[in-house]
Amino acid sequence: MTPRPRKLKILRWLPSSLVTTTGSRAGRNLYLTFDDGPHAEHTVPLLELLAQHQAKASFFLIGGQIEAHPELARRIAGEGHTLGNHSFTHPHFEKLSLSAQLDEVDRTDALLSAIDGRPRHSFRPPRGVMPPRMLANFFRQRRRTTYWSYDSLDYSRRPAAELIGIIRRHPVQAGDILLMHDDSTLSLEMLTVLIPEWKAQGFNLQALPAEA
Predict the structure, then answer these.
(1) What is the DSSP annotation of 79-114?
(2) Residue 173: count of CB within 10 angstroms of its CB
(3) What is the CATH number of the domain that holds 104?
(4) Residue 1 counted as domain residue
């Protein structure tokens, strides 16, 4: 397993204003992103760790989870992190019609807008799967899709020490967008070790810019 997915390299040829795979390299920034929350058990300890290190991140939230835990979604935004759209039910988008795909996005955007006032939010498709018709629709609407350049592999549920070892063998670089999740303890266990190391190496942990 490698943290740098080959399949995403082709996306770098698309306009960065529409498909984002890396962030600004200025200031040695790293961009932590968390999918699948907010989670009743795991989001709060993660927010506390980020606050401890004065780090900002981007949270790609599931609409159903927002409805279940609206106070956590508000807390994420209130603490200066960026909100992103990760669909309403986390479906297999390739199995849905285009109208059903867009409904997943629109329902979640409405919930996010009620929190941060923004009319729309950068979208990250579940499992990274963006069907061609949906991608074409996003291009016409000039909507941003955010992927990643570095995969923490935390969804593999391997022990944190093993995943930390993989990351150390494949060091992060300035501008990397890191894929992580806040639906288990793994991201917290990993970042408790890695954030101090990254800061000692001169990296700054920033949130991605919000959708215009």
Answers:
(1) TTPEEEE--SS---GGGS-HHHHHHHHHHHHHHHHH
(2) 14
(3) 3.20.20.370
(4) no
pLDDT tens digits for 158-187?
999 999 999 999 999 999 999 999 999 999
Please report the pLDDT score of residue 5 as a whole number. 75
* Cβ-proximal residues to 92 (8 Å cutoff; 6+ apart), any chain: 126, 127, 129
User: Is 187 within the bounds of a domain?
Assistant: yes
The answer to whether 177 and 149 have CB atoms below 8 angstroms apart is: yes
Which residue in the block uniquely carries the two structure tokens 């058990």? Answer: 41
Strand partners, 145: 19, 123
Alpha helices in 13-68 (DSSP H): 43-52, 63-68
Q: Does 212 score more than 70 pLDDT?
A: no
Instruction: List, in sequence order, every residue forming a beta bridge with 84; answer none if it has no partner.
Output: 60
Name beta bridge partners: 30: 205
Domain count across the chain? 1
Q: Confirm if 93 and 101 have CB atoms less than 8 A apart.
A: yes
What would the pLDDT profile of 69-114 be if each residue is shown by its tens digit?
999 999 999 999 999 999 999 999 999 999 999 999 999 999 999 9
